[in-house]
C-alpha cells in the first residue's frame, strides 16, 4: 500500500525531529482570522496564541 506524499513527508520530518507546526495548536487557525502566508505549515509566527 502506497502512502500519500503528504503523509510520507510528515512522517519523515517527525522522525528527523523537525520543529512542530504551530497552526495545529493555534487559536487563530481558521479561515479569515490568520493571514500568515505560510499557513498551515508555519513553524514560527508572531501572532501565535495557544488554544
Overview of this structure, please?
The mean pLDDT is 82. The longest helix is centred in the first third of the chain and has 12 residues, at 5-16. 24% of the residues lie in helices and 0% in strands. It contains one helix and no strands. It has 51 residues and is mainly α. The protein is elongated.
Structural class comes to mainly alpha
How many distinct beta strands?
Answer: 0
The radius of gyration over CA amounts to 13 Å
Tell me about the largest β-sheet.
Answer: none
Shape: elongated
> Whole-Å distance between the termini?
36 Å
Quote the beta fraction: under 5%
Number of continuous helical runs: 1
Average pLDDT works out at 82
The SSE string, one letter per element, is H
Give the structure's gist in a few sentences.
The chain has one helix spanning 5-16.
Topology overview:
Layout: H1 5-16
Question: Main traits of this protein?
Answer:
51 residues, mainly alpha
